[in-house]
Amino acid sequence: MKKKLLKSVVLLGIATILFSCSTAEQKPRDRWTEEQSNEWYKQWGWLRGANFQPSTAINQLEMWQEETFDPETIDRELSWAAGIGMNCMRVYLHHAAWEIDQEGFKDRVKQYMDIAEKHDISTIFVFFDDCWNPTYSAGKQPEPKPGIHNSGWAQDPGDLLHEKPELLNTLETYVKDILTTFKDEKRIVFWDLYNEPGNRGHGNQSMPLLEKVFEWARAVNPTQPLSVGVWDKALVELTAYSLEQSDIISYHNYSGPEDHLAAIDSLKGFNRPMICTEYMARTNGSTFETIMPILKEHNIGAINWGLVSGKTNTIFAWDTPLPNEKEPPIWFHDVFRKDGTPFSQKEVDFIKEITRGN
Fold it and tell me: What keywords are assigned to this protein (predicted)?
């Protein structure tokens, strides 16, 4: 472990020098035009899928670290997604897994995409995230807390950036390394640079990193578009900046049809492709049956939260812990149990029907 860590530190130092040299004189590219973004979107058809985390991983670190990377489960669970007509997954990365083992991390990302390609599934990758636990550490991850939604999910970079501002240099190297490695990868739909900036009380404290990640990504200039999903209109500055900078429009909405349609109406004036990267919370009235037809009608990508019930415990609602229950009567998120049987056969039959021929 010490040799691997030392090697990673050396590689990180070399990569930092190389990236600083290669981008010092390079002007970040401009935001794509409306014409560019709409032309790009034509190749994809109707995107539909889920936020994917294998059932054996409690968080991004457990998914991507060498010791717990689980290609067999990934393969099996993606086959279930393909079997009901899904063709796109949104997948979170984490800088701490990359920092320990940079080349191994990228190899595992390639392995994931190879598995997904076998099932005709493309990928949206997410870099940073302000949701759930603000602290984390590499290595063995915590066990799930019974009945608690996302009890082990890790922010990235979380509180560590505020405790160690110099971490920004590592984050820059990380983002540029991943983007440079996969900048021409045709199996990647787009780069989701920052999930829900400002969540968990961060507010405008997240603005500097949001600005930086757009700057770093544009310096690399990947062939895929860049976006940050809007999710809370009360965060006025973060929302406005995300919309002004994103090549395509992405957003989250966990409400019922009326509210979701209002959100679509508020965003369609940007005249850019739209992808809903999070929806489907059954007890909120956001279901496959109520929302998918709306998204299909408007040619908006439909990426629900969760595929297989597992360590994340996202069958339980955000604010309704049920520590004494094995499962709630109505699942909040997720589609399948670990054995591949669905929470609702009627529901998966509906998904198969609406995705047929698309």
Answer: Glycosidase, Hydrolase, Signal
- Alpha-carbon gap, residue 89 to 81, rounded angstroms: 9
pLDDT, tens digit only, all 358 positions of the chain? 444 444 454 445 544 444 444 444 457 789 999 999 999 999 999 999 999 999 999 999 999 999 999 999 999 999 999 999 999 999 999 999 999 999 999 999 999 999 999 999 999 999 999 999 999 999 999 999 999 999 999 999 999 999 999 999 999 999 999 999 999 999 999 999 999 999 999 999 999 999 999 999 999 999 999 999 999 999 999 999 999 999 999 999 999 999 999 999 999 999 999 999 999 999 999 999 999 999 999 999 999 999 999 999 999 999 999 999 999 999 999 999 999 999 999 999 999 999 998 8
**DSSP, res 141:** P
pTM for this prediction: 0.92
Phi/psi at 238 (nearest 5 deg)? -65, -40
Measured CA distances, 282 to 20, 87, 256 (Å): 47, 22, 9
Residue 214 parent element (H or E): helix 207-220
Handedness of CA 149, 153, 157, 163 (dihedral sign): positive
Closest CA to 177 of 261, 295, 97: 97
| CA distance linking residue 52 with residue 81, whole number of Å | 10
Sign of the torsion angle spanned by Cα atoms 320, 199, 162, 4: positive
Catalogue all structural domains in the chain, each as residue range(s) with its CATH number: 49-355 (3.20.20.80)
Q: Edge-to-edge strand order for the sheet containing 301-305?
A: 226-227, 188-195, 122-129, 88-92, 48-51, 301-305, 274-278, 249-252
Class of residue 141 by CB neighbours under 10 A (exposed 0-12, middle 13-18, buried 19+):
buried
Query: How many CA atoms lie within 13 Å of 95's alpha carbon, on the beta-carbon side?
Result: 25
Phi, psi dihedral angles at 59 (to 5 degrees): -160, -175
Q: Check if the beta carbon of residue 261 is closer than 8 Å to that of residue 279.
A: no
How far apart, in whole angstroms, are the C-alpha atoms of residue 277 and residue 227?
11
Per-residue DSSP letter, 286: B
Q: Which residue has the tokens 């010490």?
A: 2
Residue 3: count of CB within 10 angstroms of its CB: 7
d(CA 312, CA 143): 10
